Amino acid sequence: MTDIERLHETIQQLSYENAQLSRFKKINRLMLEGLDAILCSENHDEVFARLFDVISNILPCDQILIAQHDVQQSTVVPVCRRHDKGESGPLRFCDLTNFFDHTVNLSNVNLVPDWQSQIGKWLPEAKSVLIHPINTAQAEYIWLISECQIGAFSKQYEEVFVSFSAFVANTLSQFEKRSLMSEKEALLAERARIERSMIHQEKMAALGQLAAGVAHELNNPLGFINSNLSSLHDYVSRIEQFARQASSATSALESQFKSADLDYILTDTVDLVDESLDGMRRATDIIQNLKAFSHPDDKTTKSLDFLAVIRQALTIVRTQAKNIVDIYFDTDLESATVNANANQLAQVIINIVTNAIQAVNQGSGQINIAVTEDSAHIECRIKDNGTGIDEKVQASIFDPFFTTKAVGLGTGLGLSISRAIIEQYSGELLLESTGPTGTCFLIRLPLINEA
Amino acid sequence: MQINVRRIGLIDTEQFADELHNNDVNSADLNIAFGDVNAITALSDAVSDKTNWIASSSCLGAMSHLGTDLGDSFVHVMSLQNTQGAIGVASCDISNGNATELAGATIVTAMQRANRLGEMPSLVWIIQAPGQEEAVLDGVQTVLGNSVPIFGGSSADNAIEGKWVQFDGEHLYSNGLVIAAMYTEEPVSCYFSSGYTSTQTQAEVTAVEGRVIYTLDNKPAGEVYNHWLQEYGHPPLKPGSILSDSTYFPLGRHKGCKSDPIPLLSHPSKLNDDNSLELFATVKQGDILTLMQGEQHNLISRAAEVTEVVLRTHELNYETRPKGLLLVFCGGCMLAVKDQLETIHASILKKAQGLPFLVAFTFGEQGCFPDGKSRHGNLMISATVFG
Description:
The complex is a heterodimer.
Chain A: H1 3-39, H2 44-58, E1 63-70, E2 75-81, E3 91-92, E4 104-106, H3 119-122, E5 128-135, E6 140-147, H4 155-247, H5 251-259, H6 262-294, E7 302-305, H7 306-321, E8 325-331, E9 337-340, H8 342-359, E10 365-373, E11 377-384, H9 391-394, H10 414-424, E12 428-435, E13 438-446
Parallel strand pairs in A: 8-10
Antiparallel strand pairs in A: 1-2, 1-6, 2-3, 4-5, 5-6, 7-9, 10-11, 11-13, 12-13
Helix pairs in contact in A: 1-2, 1-4, 4-5, 4-6, 7-8, 8-10
Chain B: E1 2-9, H1 13-20, H2 23-26, E2 30-35, H3 37-46, E3 53-57, E4 61-64, E5 67-70, E6 74-81, E7 86-93, H4 99-113, E8 123-128, H5 133-144, E9 150-154, E10 166-167, E11 172-173, E12 176-183, E13 188-193, E14 197-209, E15 212-216, E16 219-220, H6 221-231, E17 240-241, E18 251-255, E19 262-266, E20 268-271, E21 277-279, E22 288-293, H7 296-318, E23 324-330, H8 331-336, H9 341-352, E24 357-362, E25 365-368, E26 374-377, E27 381-386
Helix pairs in contact in B: 4-5, 7-9
């Protein structure tokens, strides 16, 4: 063989080997540029948009699509695609099982039975389609590359495509992991909330038992003290009346009346009995509140319109709020059905609004009540423009017997009873925000779908 | 995948049939067979099962690692078993209509039989009667596109008498086309080469009809060709068959990528009295034909060289040793180096290093260059490895 012949033969041999080496080069480029695409993208859509650009630059194609197997629905649904051409509706998994099993290089989709009624819907312009299954820890996918000419994807192209699939699978796994992490964080937060709630509930249950016991034990002595004080009030009135009449019968008696300072004593005795009766009534109220706290479920529940309950409660508190605060109630909802006891819900609204009235400045106070809903909950926000709750006491406001009011002005049971009532209906009562411009409480209750 | 090659002689018809029905052959996913016309005809009589066959007559006989048979009726059978994929075989008589349309329908049937309709085969293996190879390739590429590797050869007889035959396991054709659509799990590598050197001598085809060139650069084609031979120190050829005389001076068309074109050869087969030149391949008006030059020692060494290249490429690409080698060697080239066949056989054995192989001697070769498109040429050599 002459040198020229040998050279020609070598060039031809090298061109074959070069074709094989270019395969590795393409895979390397895909990896490198694919990695860049992932690193400089912030979200799922951006990552795949960039990744698809990289793929189509190195592996020329018209369309790239990734579809996921929805196990529950037994369908396959496109999750991302390069161009918005074609439908994106689900297809039956049973018609596509072959594609989830191994790589399929369709050189002429017109020959494939039922193509147009299946993947042809997603890729209406495709003549050649390369399909490869991708399995991650969480899901099964297929990724598809298409061209609008017959036989577009050579064996070498297919090999590069399949080699790069592992990278795409890894990218999908990363998103699944991110999603799992976020779900895990949400679950951990929920678990912490439940644990806090359980501790609170246990504390409340203990307090409830104590309160029930105390209420029961105090109720009888308070009953006869109240009865005795009422009789004493009657007796003292009659004694005072007799003493005043008798003292005016003679000057000697009148003189003795004055010298014994009986006028003051009789008046003070009546006042003392009256004050004792007032104290008695307050003690009775406390006992009633303790009973309500320890037995919040002693009421019947039914489906009711939360908006009607709020309006009813506001008619009561507006009397108290007159000349102090303006109360606004705003909602776009026509009704908001929840499952609860109307009186208890009204008590919650009255408690929170009453607190708000006491927190705002007289004359410039404003309370806004807004009700909204999402797919599963009714949310009622009660917001005042007061000075806010001191940071030091925010953690304690739902504790029983905690109050910042002067002695005699509050039992410290209002918010704790309110929270117990709302939680009894699987809802939440939260201090949503507080600060120098005001405080907002959020009541969230499960929405009952009447349909 | 398992690949076995058997060499079965047609000495005793009953024994021939018995040997054919051994387990390797009967349980094969595909049997590829070559032998002389008598051997393939006998094969068609002996085969009675429904195994996939793609068999063709080969010039004078065939070669395998088991030996070379020229003039004796031996059939060399390569059996592909446990391919972990699918293979469909279909055939037609291409004298029954438009060759392009028939080829298109035949490849569709082959895909259907493999139960892979619409899917790109890993290899299309094809044998056909000489004459309409370009039209046949066009038909297959209309269905599959240009990316699928199509390899194979045109059937041959011993003296270009048109006695060649093709067999698909059921039908024996004299003007047939048999196509195997192969979907193998294990890799396949191929190589297609001419092994000839381009000269600086060129001319444009200015009048042509099918495979008959009337004028080159507006001068009688035979006159131009003879003038070229004289320039290279050879006497002018007389009208008649020029197949063996033109073996070392075929005509080349440069194909593939522009920066690295590869010559696709056409073998002048006959010089007509009207000074027109007949070829074994179709050229088109406007094609530039280059005079190619070959040497005997080059033809002798080609088979081993392509074997080395295809094995190296396969091992580089897939990091695995293939399980079988299939060579298609131009019958014209073989005739030119017929007395050196033992040297060729030994050189292939050395490169194959124990790999079973089968060599056919054909009157036309089909294969694909590195640009991926499959073409028909003459005086070419192809190598295919499986597994």
